[in-house]
Design goal:
Layout lengths: L6 E9 L5 H14 L6 H14 L8 E2 L2 E4 L6 E14 L5 E11 L3 H14 L3 H9 L3 H7 L1
Parallel strand pairs: 1-4, 2-5, 3-5
Antiparallel strand pairs: 4-5
Keywords: Phosphoprotein, Phosphotransferase system, Sugar transport, Transferase, Transport
GO cellular component, one term: membrane
Protein name: PTS system, fructose subfamily, IIA component
Length: 146
Amino acid sequence: MELKEIMLNDLIIFDEGIRSKSDLFDCLAKNLEEQNRVSKAKKIIKDLYKREKETSTGIEDGFGIPHAKSKYVLEPTVCFVHTGLMDDYTGLDGKPIECVFAILVPQKATDLHLDILSGFSRRLMNQDFRDRLKNAKTAAEVLQIF
């Protein structure tokens, strides 16, 4: 499955008002529920926090990849969110996260979950890819990068 096949235009969000992990997860869950990608927004928030407690999903250079498998996910989905700097969500390099790829898959989709996660991890190793995402201003620009 190609990564852009599971990224919806309506789930590419630019919101500088998001300044915390709580704001981020609330925004994700609300938008996912509105797009009929999940059945219960509050349960998705809990699933994201549960995964985050295992180890932070912040990577480096301002990027994070929060992800979860959940029985409340109706379809595999990737959301891109460009936020304000989040002081309570940092990468391994200590930099605040500002660009997020949230990955949500149904509970039993373990292989797909790992495939999507590894696909984004590989792409995020490329500095040009990261720079272009940081500078994107519209959903169309984000989708063109893929």
